[in-house]
Structure prediction request, 74 residues.
Amino acid sequence: MPAERLLTSEHFDRMAAELRSGPLTDAQWQQEQERRRQGAKRLEQALSSHPFYAARAAKDPEYWNKFYASQVNW
Prediction:
């Protein structure tokens, strides 16, 4: 995918708005943690049967969490 499609001005505007909004409240942080857990779970369910991903997950117990955090959107 071309780099210009990955980093759009809309992406940077959204990031800037998030930074301006300040730190998350405890409730927001809990929601974010749950969103990440669910996202990692969806990735695991969708991709764990593929040998490439299964091998990586076997080596690293945090693989699905790291993979989700790498901005793969599911």
Observations:
- Residues 1-5 have pLDDT under 50 and may be disordered.
